[in-house]
Amino acid sequence: MNLKSRRQYEARARIAKALAHPSRLLILDALADGERCVCELTPLVGADQSTVSKHLAVLRNAGIVEDRKDGVMTYYRVKICCLQGLWQCIESVLKQNFDEQRAAMEV
Fold it and tell me: Which pLDDT tens digit goes with each residue over 7-20?
């Protein structure tokens, strides 16, 4: 068995924790269409600007998004290219779970 080191699992957990919030997932979906500033994300998330900024900081610290300053404005964009595959995997698990639950109800 080829287990990873404890630090590798901790690093994975930090990224998973950064993704483990519905508002951050919504932000990532919005950023998939291109970079946006906090002021554009705030109404989408339905939270105040400081909360959205905190969510973006979590994603940035995990290496998932990056920012760019333009005067007083900060624009955020997705830094990694593998999110679409991750979303497809998650949707596959959701569909499989749904199919299993539906089959159990038909018995």
Answer: 999 999 999 999 99
